[in-house]
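Appendix B. One record, verbatim.
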Amino acid sequence: MGFEFWMFLSLVYVSHFHFHFHGLSLAEKAPYYSFVHEAAMAPEVSFYDYIIIGGGTAGCPLAATLSESANVLVLERGGSPYENPSKPDKGNFFQNLLDVSPSSYAQEFTSEDGVYNARARVLGGGSVINAGFYSRAEPEFLKQAGLNEALVNYSYQWVEKKIAFEPPMLQWQSALRDGLLEAGVLPNNGFTFDHIYGTKIGGTIFDGDDHRHTAADLLEYANPYRIKVYLHATVEKIIFETKVFSRTRAQGVVFEDELGKKHWALLTKDYKSEVILSAGALGSPQLLMLSGIGPSQQLKKFGIKVVMDQPMVGQGLVDNPLNVLLVPSPSPVELSLVSFVGITRFGSYIEACSGISFTPSWSRSVAKALAAILNQTEQSSTKLFQEGILNPESLLDTRIRGGIIFEKVKDPISSGYLELRNMNPRDNPKVTFNYFQAPEDLMKCVHGVKIAIDAVYSKSFSNFRYEILSAKALLELIVNLPLNQRPRHLTSAFSLEKFCMDTVMTIWHYHGGCRLGKVVDRDYKVLGVEALRIVDGSTFTSSPGTNPQATVMMLGRYMGLKILQERYFGKYRKK
């Protein structure tokens, strides 16, 4: 580490000084930050040291850190999670994901593979709409990214002080955890943020009152006098300066407010000022292309001036396949999202939630599928669902009695790509993930689903399953639900290979498109361009840990400190 590490420590000291000096007065105002405004209030032209595109899971901690010693602008295309403080809370998880209104936190899209998906559009990004699980990356991920271990640990702790909690382990979650241990996902590692093989209780961003804490809360660390956050600010393109015999250099951005008025945010004359993309695995490659950096043939197709031909932009896009079991329960279950995880050695993660609310139409689908399977022979076991068939409105405030078990494939080999659909930055690009293209990915899923089934039929979980429901019936229930737009094989409930392919879903952990070493260097600078970085999941070559949000937030803090170090102390080699 040597001298570089001591420079990091000096930045940490400065960071703590700013927090203690500004933090108390700001925290009293939080979450109604004085520096957050609608984009319509922005001046026509403004100047900043750093312009961050995207106030999401990476953008918020990055902005808070940079504001300690520089003037920062954050442009977020969505609204604020604080306008309706209870909306992001635990009980509204699925409703927020399924909300298709123009002001929703999640913008839906369907991949070319026929899988429904969603993309966050709210201050705080995916941390506002996810299942809340908080778990650090595996050491291999951090080593591959070339990150400084001491600074990584400090950055994780900086995040955790503000938004991470230990979840309660009530009856349903505890029974399933014990079932996983029976199924051989050993050892029992208790509660830890660390990534360890076996079964563990991880962190959560929901507090004891089921209130969600998000990356937006990390803005409490910001210096309120050196930061501006504009909401409903849609960036149309990055502005570049191109000169003969000089590298292309980012100068600023053009963004549009909710009324359709254009604004120009430009970098100050300091040569260390930068535009930083933190728009996510879809937004960052999309905006690079709209700005003229990407595969030249695709750009020319839409009449976009080619600033730099970069064929790797949009490539290497990966989504971790998700397959589920829905398990109705004869006993009452608690409302819970992901509280523990089974980390297998063969490359599969098992997580679960219980007692959640669906929309009435989705509840009706569940009811019909289950009634058909049981042929309405076990009235007591389908009472809740059959009531929903007759009166779906009654399920609006009803939590389903049962749970959902998730199986996620770790490090899929299958990858896809992103292409522009049009030139409108508000529209989602065209996305293909190529789920299970690699046979190795399919084998991981099959093995993982077997483990999940073993856990369901374990002695520990016996109070929360109906004996009448066989494993085949559980598979058939999922096959008959409208989980995606993919065709079904007649043998989907008999063959786990077909089950995995036919019922694949997303767990919203897609990444890539601006990969490290392909589009950005190890300092997350865009190759061949000055004053432009990308700090978000689009740079990842794999999804970190069981759930990426902890590492994405850590990376925002980490890179904020690295950028400040470079700004004020220059770049130092490791010694």
